[in-house]
Amino acid sequence: MLKFVAGATGYLDHCILEYGGGVSEGAEVLVDRGADVVLHECAVTRSNGDGLRIRGSVNTGALRFLAEGGVFGQNAGRGMRVDGSVSATEVQVTGSTFEGNAIGVEMTEVSSAVQLSGNVFKPHSGVAVKGGINAVAHSLLGQPVADDFSGMTTTYTGIEIAGGIANSPGGQLSPDGSAPYRVSSDVSVGEGFALTVSPGTTLLFDSGRWLWVDGVLNVAGQPSSSVLMTASSASRQPGSWPGMCISYTGQVNMSYCTVENGGGSRLQAMVEQRLGGALMMDHCTLRRAAGAALYLRGDSGVGTARANLASCIVTETLWEDAREYYTRLVMGSHRTLWMATAAGFKVFRMP
Hints:
By secondary structure, this protein is mostly beta strands. The chain folds into 2 domains: 1-185; 192-351. Helix content is 1%, strand content 45%. Strands 1-4-7-10-13-16-18-21-24-27-30-33-36-39-40 form a 15-stranded mixed sheet. The longest helix is centred in the middle third of the chain and has 5 residues, at 133-137. The N and C termini lie far apart (68 Å).
């Protein structure tokens, strides 16, 4: 094992590091906070644990790790593992290849983040990139150059969000190459915090996994680059995932977004607004819901639900109507919610 402790400086050029790992740290190359390390066109392979491990909470001081044009492959664990409090400006990997590891890159803690730019991900036994919602939303994935996931077995093995609460300022999900974000465990936006989903982003939800909003969720699609929220299953059907819920403290602002194949379990509808939460939708489509696509609910004991829906479409649901209870629907004359039924299109009813 090669270990860089706090205060250490290392520059490795065209080196091959292989058949290591297996000690208490479980990695072939270990970098602690306080070290300054550059790997230039190096291969870190065939560890019986992780290839590279960065420990952001061990020791103190500035951390810099840069890997350029390297290979992280055939490691029994992760190609690269990032632990502890690490920012994307401290750990940067560019132009490298990840192949044949258990997982390509994993951020194991909520405050772990990395910058990945122009890397190539080939098949692993698991996913290419994995982390909780805070780690993924604060990483710089595909910036400034998109990563290449075309060699992965399926698009579902690209980037995995392993659940958690988005409760750190400035979180953002942006597209990285061809890889969607697969949500493998429940995700929520914490009260007092905001999460932004950038244009062109796709979120795939595993069966039974939902998105819960106590804070602010901004889904910022554009006419030429919309956002998609759907099921991760290859055979997507209505009810393949529960959907999204806005709590009484939550606010969702959605534009040019499609939500589909949800509903039927855990929630009243594929998109459910509870107890005075705010829902603003502009040019959005809700389709293929099992049960109600949209449920707008107010409660006189807590507050009145707020909903403003502009040029939206609800279609291909398994119910003919949507539900609304004690709801104030704010619509101008040019703001219309359309619903497709067997009889054709009709205006969503107002209280």
